[in-house]
Design brief:
Elements (H helix, E strand, L loop, with lengths): L1 H40 L15 H4 L3 H29 L4 E11 H15 L20 E13 L6 E6 L10 H19 L4 E7 L13 H6 L5 E3 L1 H8 L4 H27 L4
Length: 278
């Protein structure tokens, strides 16, 4: 019996890996094709993505290749991040019910408490902890109806867990948005926990990769000012979560590397068009 169960688990794991790899391959190939087509079609467009960024005379003085790569790199970084976000959502749908909004009731007493808490974080008067909002469902009173757009709201039907995720691909948390983004997550948390209880909902700040190096501690001050260590879901942890596999990160990165030749070919194609006269 145990042997049969082990084989079944292995089969499920293998099918999960195949499905993840198929999504990664499809997303990367489609991204490369779209990225190439878009930039090539904009070659003679003064308002094109690259053309709009190449007129910095101080960069231009360094030569056409540097000028081109400087403009392209910014476009690549932004669009690649968007692709990774969409890819993660597609992978998550293999194991979760995925939504990108939360709406319902919370209480004025809860929003008042959240505002007080965030002000303490802002002034560095209190270090964030998940214990800070433990018991927040007991703060009831005047009802407020709200709807929040969410990066990822994942519901695991097997375990009953719900994850509210703020995803920043590289982990950059804007100084002006840090407070409002944690506020939105806490309000979503209240909406869900008022209905479901506090033990089945988690708030997470996630990144697709670790800007400090895989496996190294996350040190960005702006993030740690508003999010506790227990709320961080960095790189490997994020991909393992959305893949619902302890090998999720390794599978995604390995398949991306297998398919990255599509992006390299697209970049070569764009370069040949933009630097054809150089």
């Amino acid at each position: 019996m145990l042997s049969m169960l082990g084989k079944l688990l292995d089969m499920n794991s293998l099918e999960n890996e195949k499905a993840i790899r198929a999504i990664v391959a499809t997303c990367v190939e489609a991204y490369a094709s779209g990225f190439s087509d878009r930039h090539i079609s904009e070659k003679d467009d003064d308002d094109g993505t690259i053309n709009m960024k190449i007129h910095n005379v101080f960069i231009a003085a360094l030569g056409p290749e540097i000028q081109y790569y400087s403009a392209l790199a910014r476009s690549l970084d932004s669009s690649l991040g968007n692709m990774l976000e969409k890819m993660a959502i597609r992978i998550a749908t293999l194991h979760y019910t995925v939504s990108q909004h939360v709406e319902g009731c919370l209480y004025k007493e809860q929003t008042d408490y959240i505002a007080e808490l965030l002000e303490k974080y802002k002034r560095h008067a209190q270090k964030p902890s998940v214990l800070d909002y433990q018991g927040i469902t007991k703060r009831i009173g005047d009802i407020i109806q709200k709807r929040h757009e969410s990066d990822y709201y994942l519901y695991d039907e097997v375990t009953g867990m719900r994850y509210l995720i703020e995803l920043k691909i590289g982990g950059d948390l804007d100084n002006k948005k840090a407070r409002s983004e944690k506020e939105a997550l806490l309000e979503q948390y209240c909406i869900l926990t008022n209905q479901l209880g506090e033990d089945k909902v988690k708030i997470l700040f996630a990144t697709a990769y670790n800007r400090y190096g895989e496996g190294k501690p996350w040190r960005q001050g702006r993030v740690l000012q508003f999010f506790s260590e227990d709320e961080l879901c960095i790189s490997r942890d994020f991909w393992n979560l959305v893949c619902k596999s302890e090998r999720g990160y390794d599978i995604v990165v390995d398949e991306y590397k297998n398919c990255v030749h599509y992006i390299i070919a697209a970049l070569d194609n764009i370069k040949s068009i933009y630097l054809s006269n150089e």
